[in-house]
Amino acid sequence: MINFQNVSKIYQSNSHETIALDDATFRILPKEFVSLVGKSGAGKSTIIKLLIAEEKPSKGKVTMGNYEVAKLKLKELPSLRRRVGVIFQDFRLLPNKTAAENVAFALEVAGRTQEEIEEYVPQAMEMVGLKDKMRNFPKELSGGEKQRVAIARSMINHPDVLIADEPTGNLDPINTWDIIKLLLKINELGTTIILATHNKDIVNFLDRRVISLENGRVIRDEQKGKYILV
Fold first, then answer.
1. Which residues pair with 51 in a beta bridge?
2. Can you name the residues that pair with 13 across neighbouring β-strands?
3. Which CATH code, of 3.50.50.60, 3.10.20.310, 3.40.50.300, 3.30.200.20, is assigned to 2-93+159-222?
4. 148: burial class by Cβ within 10 Å (0-12, 13-18, 19+)?
5. Which of helix, strand or coil describes residue 140?
6. C-alpha 156 chain-centroid distance
7. Pair type for strands 84-88 and 217-222
8. Each residue of 121-139: pLDDT tens digit?
9. Which residues are CB-contacts of 101 (< 8 A; sequence separation ≥ 6)?
């Protein structure tokens, strides 16, 4: 379970103070599919950075399972990050590696054996429907295919949670819906999904839990929500 308890994140710049997250409290249960919605600067990215320990809260506590994220030692962070897969709008694939090598890289970093890599990579590529594109380089793939490779890479270590940060922002409508269907499939297999998005149509189609943010504050948290920010 993920728990944000009275969490604030404040950035100091000279004498200026910016509140990125303001006293946020919410829980995300295992196997939930939750959308984080709000305008740019609302606090979505800050929540993600706090979850993967890229930032520490100024106030409050972020926990995942039995771990308080901000108190993890440096040597414990890789273990946390293996439990949390992340995909981004810009894919973040390594251009000089093939699709399969991009996925394998996550296993190499985790210290997996060559035998495990040879077994798991084709399985992951098949899950995202790209087993026939394993030897293609990113420049040879469409935007939708690149995002599928990114999803395979994020899922290769079987994380408990998959965070999707504007994953369809650079995609056309057809590829957008293909990615959303894939996220739903992953969720049905038992992975918690946290989707940060501006896309009203996606949120309303999902008809799942929605946490709405505005100026760093949680202004709405509904189990079957709609994107109704103005």
1. none
2. 16
3. 3.40.50.300
4. buried
5. helix
6. 14
7. unpaired
8. 999 999 999 999 999 999 9
9. 94
